[in-house]
Amino acid sequence: MKTQVWAHRGASAYAPENTLEAFKLAAGQGADGVELDVQLSRDNELVVAHDETIDRVSNGSGYIKDHTLSELKKLRFNRLFPEYRDASIPTLGEVYELLRPTGLVVNVELKTGIVPYEGIEERVLDLASEMGMGDRVIYSSFHHPSLVKLKMLDSSVKTGLLYSDGWIDVASYGRHTARVDALHPALYHMQDPELIPSARSLGLALHVWTVNDEEYMEMLVRQGVEAIITNKPDLCRSVADRVDPFG
Questions:
Q1: What angle do CA 72, 75, 79 make, to 5 degrees?
Q2: What is the rounded CA–CA span in Å between residue 157 and residue 71?
Q3: Catalytic residues, which ones?
Q4: Whole-angstrom Cα distance, residue 84 to residue 192?
């Protein structure tokens, strides 16, 4: 299977992360999918943003959970790319509407580790079903109870285990405890010589983040990982197209 290219928060090396502009650019650069982050506004709307606060990426401040969607929509989310004057925070539904015609996979990361966002699991499943996107979405989270809950609500959904340092036998934990379909290791986790064989033995896909250097993209394609998550989908596309898997 050819390694897929998933754009991390969209083509975030070139456009404001987690905006429609970044997702549209990623599709234009040949990405096979996008990775994004979802949270709930004060009025319980699914919005796409990575940080729990908006200070880093917008001209506003404070927690997303303390702002209504209307209040968030009045802000500009172009602080890191001021040339994108109209960039705003999108709803998850708006992203689906943009990407539905493209056929791209959507990796939805639930940001439930710091703010619990009660009911967000039900909300994302309902939205994907309503918009006909259910078979194109994989859900990931560092907060593994959210992944377990998603599987309890719908055993057919695809989930991926995000994790940080220090795990022992993460593949077994992912398969048997969190009951996921994929592991989402950081690039530095790939130093573990047991990771690929253990994942393969348990039927778990590997979606590796965040990979922006060509040499590591080449390494991962040759190792046959299922997806590379990158801020530079254009570069990763060129690598994935010219490097032979397992070559």
A1: 125
A2: 32
A3: 8, 50
A4: 40
